[in-house]
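Q: Okay, next protein. This is Glyoxylase-like metal-dependent hydrolase (Beta-lactamase superfamily II) from Actinomycetospora succinea. I've checked the sequence twice, so it should be correct. Can you predict the 3D structure?
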Amino acid sequence: MSWFHARPVARDVWLVAEPGHVNSWLVAGRDRAVLVDSGLGIAPIRPVVAALTDRPIDVLHTHAHFDHVGGDAEFDRVAIHPAGVAELRAGADPAERARYLAYTRRMLAAAGRYRALDHEFFHLLSADSDPRPLPPDVDATWAPGPAPEPDLLTDGDEIDLGGRTLRVLHTPGHTPDSVCFLDEHDGLLLAGDTVNTGPIYAQAPESDLAAFAASTARLAELDVRLVLMAHFGRGVAEGHHVREVADAFARLRAGDAVVRPARDCDDDPVREAVFDACSIYVPADG
């Protein structure tokens, strides 16, 4: 089984999934292509995307977290919001990768039971989402190289791919450097970690709940056909999901949410606000 699963989702747009882990997105125009985030770096991503298009490929980042930038050393050009430059230059803390591996091993230990239940009752798992087992030597080999010195992305920038344009939307909240990319012509929103089906991570020290609510409210005003997301079992959602997420943040801010204890992927205690369309993690002591 390959570490990656790639498939077309829209016109010259491909999901490049590390199933059960993180999604990257390849978007091609007439002249060039961009890879929106470069994944974990556990396995080389460039050969996967190079097999999908013959156009030159650069990397655009939704933010600097380690699970979105791991393949950067394979590319000549990457770009990120200025607020993410320092983290991108610093690289991932090995202890952070170790915590992620511990979380993944807990997930994989549960995956067999989940597959059996899904096969018998629910029929939701697909090649997009069925978790990939870790390579046997991952503890020794997972050490992503440094990213190239990045170009900068600011709100309103337009990325011209030739016959296709992506507009940069600065959407702080998950992190100060979080951005989304909008293909207005085709109605596609590449949402990074700003929009997911949940849990949406708003619990970290760098997260800002008020900014997150404002960013999702901004996205809810867009005319979007498909939302292309980075995590969990559903990487593609209909456009109205952005309004559902914005409504969830507004309700959470207003105190209108069912909140329960949970633990995030670092095994830290958090509170989870649960809604029909998604859930949101907030600090345990907030």
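A: Here is a summary of the prediction. The chain has a mean pLDDT of 96. Residues 5-90+143-283 form a domain with the Metallo-beta-lactamase; Chain A fold (CATH 3.60.15.10).
Q: Noted. On to the next one.
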